[in-house]
Amino acid sequence: MIRDAKKEWLIALTLIAPFAAIYGLVFVYPTIDMFLLSFTDAPLIGAGDYVGLENYTRLTSDRRFDTAVWNTAWFVVLSVIPGTFVALGIALAVSRLSGRLQTAVLALFFLPYILPVSVIYLIWDWTLNFQFGIAMHIFDALGIDRIPVFKSATWFIPAVALITVWWTCGFNVLLFLAGLRAIPQEIYEAAALDNAGRWKTFSRVTWPLLWPITALNFTIQLILQMKIFDQVYLFSQGGRPNDNLVMVYYIFQRAFQNNHGGRAAAVAVVLFFIVIVVSVLNFQLMRFAERKQ
Amino acid sequence: MADIVLDHVSKSFGKVRVIDDLSLTVQSGEFIVFLGPSGSGKSTLLRMIAGLETIDRGRLLIGGRECQTVAPGQRNVAMVFQNYALYPHMTVRENMVFGLRNIGMASDEIRRRVEEAARILEMDQLLDRRPSQLSGGQRQRVAIGRAIVKEPAAFLFDEPLSNLDAALRVRTRVELAELHHRIGTTMIYVTHDQTEAMTMADRIVVLNDCRIEQVGTPMEVYTAPASRFVAGFIGSPAMNFLPVEVINSDGQALATLDDGSTIGLPPDIAGRGRLDLGVRPENVGIVGEGGMTTGKVKVVEHLGDRTIVYVVLGDGTPVTAQTGGHSQVRAGEVVGLTFDVEGARLFGTDGLAQDQAAAI
Prior knowledge:
The structure holds 2 protein chains of 2 kinds.
Chain A: H1 5-37, H2 54-59, H3 63-96, H4 99-110, H5 117-128, H6 134-142, H7 153-181, H8 185-193, H9 198-226, H10 230-235, H11 247-257, H12 261-292
Helix pairs in contact in A: 3-4, 3-7, 3-9, 3-11, 4-7, 7-9, 9-12, 11-12
Chain B: E1 4-13, E2 16-26, E3 31-35, H1 42-50, E4 57-62, E5 65-66, E6 77-80, H2 92-102, H3 107-120, H4 136-148, E7 154-158, H5 166-183, E8 186-191, H6 194-200, E9 203-208, E10 211-216, H7 218-223, H8 228-233, E11 240-249, E12 252-257, E13 262-265, E14 273-279, E15 284-287, E16 293-302, E17 306-313, E18 318-324, E19 334-339, E20 345-347, H9 354-359
Parallel strand pairs in B: 3-8, 3-9, 6-7, 7-8
Antiparallel strand pairs in B: 1-2, 1-4, 4-5, 9-10, 11-12, 11-14, 12-13, 14-20, 15-19, 16-17, 16-19, 17-18
Helix pairs in contact in B: 2-3, 2-4
């Protein structure tokens, strides 16, 4: 059969066009518009005047922006690293089970992941609420002072990070489990014959062979957690939102509560670049580490 | 070098019994092959020796030491897996070194052993490559190398050639036999390929249905199969089994085929009555006239050095004959058949060879 290059091009274009059109409309266009908006003093709705880099220079002395950046970074550290290791630990434990028991235990760990954030909020509010939280009753019984977890700037981010790890680690467990299953059983048998104990087998066989999955897991979580908003928003209700600000919450505040479309766009652009730089950096670091192994 | 003794060992997976009260002694320095069809328990038996499967009952002695409760790494055996099981993230050298480091061997000794193994297996050039950069044959070498550097009491091979192409399989087979001659260590080799078993083994252990059917040298197993199963499993094409009635007539044993023709058997052959006469295809002759019986040729296979002729007797019994490479026999012809009964065996309805049954 002779290939008709022109026809093939036409078919390819027809197939790609719907996606390209939607992608352009809902991603490329708003992104470009956001960049343009960040150089104006536009309100939430409607156009504004060009103000140059003013929205950006203002950020350097913006206390709330400062809080948002550090809180986001702190949250990422507290959720991504423990989240990865907790998921790895659970996956290693679950992989030792077999049959229906494994499925049942896996389902238990995965269950929180399917819950919407509002339900997560309710569950943990019932648990950690200063007045009526179950944990507080346990604190009372143990003679420990009650902690106003969601009202204290010290405890807020660690608590939300813990809740996020609890909520999302089911998915990470699944990824790790898939990675573990991809390692042939024979390799472990060879390691057993090579006199490798449990720790040696993990550190010299499982961990290196699981590295691509760990890197993937880490990167996915990193991107996801830098965009944290829902949990912080919900748990801040009635608390101290300005102390608990994270980047996306700050964008929301600026745009929807302060009616500063231009300034919100500037923060969004900064977040956009942070996400890109951190993800690329993370990816390169992971590759470097893999080569070193 | 060490002898390996299996003393009444049993193994079950749930309710399924895979090894049933099996006893076997592998002599020190011996090359022994576990041969059997899929599901016969041969790989399980090897894995029990390696420690990768637990032993439910019985004792395992390696070099006189009781090992049934010892961890795999402490048994002083090395295994070559069917899929090689090389560590994909380590170089060839690291693959070989891993096990030695784990027992805290001095690095000078490790270097000496790796160099020695690389020299024996001619893989000096491959030491810094990863398994993904090697061909199937090279990976096989590395797997063997990883076993050699341990200088174990025994090597265990689990169908190590089954992933290689035909030519490479033959070459590696010869190399393995050479290796055994050179280092003289006890080797246990699992295969379902009778050619591998016949060419390499000092002794063959034929396994079927969770138990040992026969243990013997390749020629013993071939010429004096202890059971109908062994007779049918070893040899290609397989042995013919002719239903016969064996009677004594004037001091001579006579076998009557179902088509009415009779074959004179050696007088000392054990067994009388309704039996199966086992005759190897090379002991079946094709003649124009004057045969012991006649049959119709169904298919003729010319293999160059020999010709395989598939014949059906008058009563429907199939007989396979093997003749010289220049046979002129054609499909559809009616031919006469002769049977050289010197090496023939009689099998009872229980599947046992009659002399074996008589011995029991």
